[in-house]
Amino acid sequence: MALINDAYLDDVAEEQGFVFETVAENNQIDLIDFITKYMTSEYKGHIDNRDAWYANQLYEEQLDYLSKQYKFKKTNKKYDEVLAKWVGEFYAYLQAYKQVPSKTLIVRIPANKIYAMASGLHDIDMDLAVKKVGDTI
């Protein structure tokens, strides 16, 4: 896996956060199912490896591509958009910190678990949150 440089990392984290936030705002797709499929997708693998075409996609382009490639569970459950965005950013930074593929990371810390933890972690510094969680997995 390619080592993530800081310039790419911030952009990837921001766009991933927007992707998760937009799914939460949509209120039709189950966020946990989406995150799990996204993190294990070939698409995310390309982003992890910094394939330029994938890593430079804006969140709207990512959602368009993913919606054509995958079927996601439908739901009426309401997810908090702020927490969803934070989870997206957190997973990107945690993936860089642990230097493991996203598909491995989602097994070590499932989406439902990190979403539940997000309400207590999202108010602290992101680097501290990543280190705190990353050092336990």
What does this structure look like?
This protein has 137 residues and is mainly alpha-helical. The protein has one domain (6-134). It has nine helices and no strands. The protein has helices at residues 6-26, 31-40, 42-48, 52-55, 59-69, 81-98, 102-108, 111-121, 126-134. Helix 1 (6-26) packs across helix 5 (59-69), helix 6 (81-98) packs across helix 8 and helix 6 (81-98) packs across helix 9 (126-134). The two termini are 19 Å apart. The relative contact order is 0.18.
Mean pLDDT across the residues is: 90
Number of strands: 0
- Report the major sheet: none
Question: Helix count?
Answer: 9
Which class best fits the helix and strand makeup? mainly alpha
H/E order of the elements?
A: HHHHHHHHH
DSSP strand (E) fraction? Answer: under 5%
If you compute it from the alpha carbons, what radius of gyration comes out, rounded to the nearest whole angstrom? 14 Å
Distance between the termini: 19 Å
Number of spatially distinct domains: 1
Q: Helical residue percent?
A: over 70%
